[in-house]
């Protein structure tokens, strides 16, 4: 509360010069004093509003139009490059089929200046190439899990991951209990588990889907089983969870997984196996080289495999391919500067996609040997080469949007808070000076 003397001093300071009636002077002084105070309040209010607006815009970026939950295959695409979300991004999704899945660091603000971080899964939309963090159902978002094995189906409509009991320490996983498969369109989750073994022994085998996206392929051991040669190879129907035992215990090495437009494909040494879990039908094919991985082209109109001379220890891996399996047996595709290790899919019946656990992949013409290189490593500190939806190689690649959330969202707020403090301090100093005048 100001005293009468203070008010009179303020009014005298603001009084207009020149002749005027005493009554007019008082009224003008009152009006000017009110206007000055209102201007100060308006300035501070505008500053606060500007800071708040900036914080809202930067902390919660426009998510744009909702993505279609389900779209035709022809409208699904791989991105030209795979970006990780900005480490500070809080966007989770995406809705609909995925083009790629990867692992990258995520940072979350705590308080005004603190932060916490960790590795998280991210997914890339097959609709528009946008990258977002994956919010896996059934997992508390504040209890970030240790990432185990995970897989993306070739059609991009299923995502699978290992399920564990809690570990003894926060940064470890406990025993394997099964697998979860999420429909990326409906976000419904199917939990898979061996009813005869509530706790399982993991192997070094990665999770993979069959080439037709109908089965999740797992190799695991039952606890208490043989110390060696105890793993079994099982295909799980991702529609109803039905398991099919493809190989029982007894093999020393794990199977080398392959793909085909239908059925499950795997290999051992120089033999390639193909089985239909639904009918039990099986076939096998002998090849002249040790098979690392094998794949049939769409409609079975081509065949490729990565082979190594079984008689040469540590020999190089080579790409063999042809229009038929018989034509591919001994036909090496001479590709310079290419160390083949993976068959990631087919662009068509003539072009196979070859990788080597890197972000760079090569599309090889199995007739001419011509190679087109794709450097798919995008922004973000990605831990692994992303897993791609192999079927989508048949569609054109799209340019993805730049990632958002690459900087601390609190920075504008902290700067804006400083501006507010300076504005308030300035207003108070100006008022004091006028009182002293």
From TrEMBL:
Name of the protein: WD40 repeat domain-containing protein
Superkingdom of origin organism: Bacteria
Biased amino acid composition, Basic and acidic residues: 1-10
SUPFAM superfamilies, A to Z: YVTN repeat-like/Quinoprotein amine dehydrogenase
Species annotation: Nocardioides immobilis
Residue span of region Disordered: 1-25
Low complexity: compositionally biased ranges: 12-23
InterPro entries according to UniProt: 6-blade_b-propeller_TolB-like, Quino_amine_DH_bsu
Residues spanning the membrane: 38-58, 413-430
Keyword tags: Membrane, Transmembrane, Transmembrane helix
